[in-house]
Amino acid sequence: MDTNDNNFDFLDKYADTETLVREAPAEVVVDGYDDPAKEEYKAVEKSNRAIRRLEIHFADASSTLVSYAQLIRCIRSSEGNFLTLIFTDVVITLEGRNLAALIPLIKEEKLSAIFCFNPENDTPAPASDPFIKKITEQSLKEFRGDGVD
To answer: Where are the domains of the chain?
Structure first.
């Protein structure tokens, strides 16, 4: 691939072809237990001022940092259980409940961190709070379906 070629797609050069899915185990019980050794789960961390970057924390304790300046689109399912954030180089999809509550924070760039539930470290939050049980990270190329076998 020649970088001087006018048809060169810079995203193709760096695009992964493997979807990264990091989620809480299927047997997660989200209501009805209390373990004093665990912290109460919070899906988000808010800020009172605009933030330049958004931290995304996966269930396996790994994380990534993305720039709000590269956010192209935010898509919410009608049920509010899926939220897809499309950036210039990566697509992050959240699966959970009450995710529509995140949109005003994203619009104002006041969401500083997103956390996937981890049953080893977290106790469930109230049912009315946002809850993220799965985070999927894809390249734009894979999200578009280009060149994926």
So the answer is: 48-149
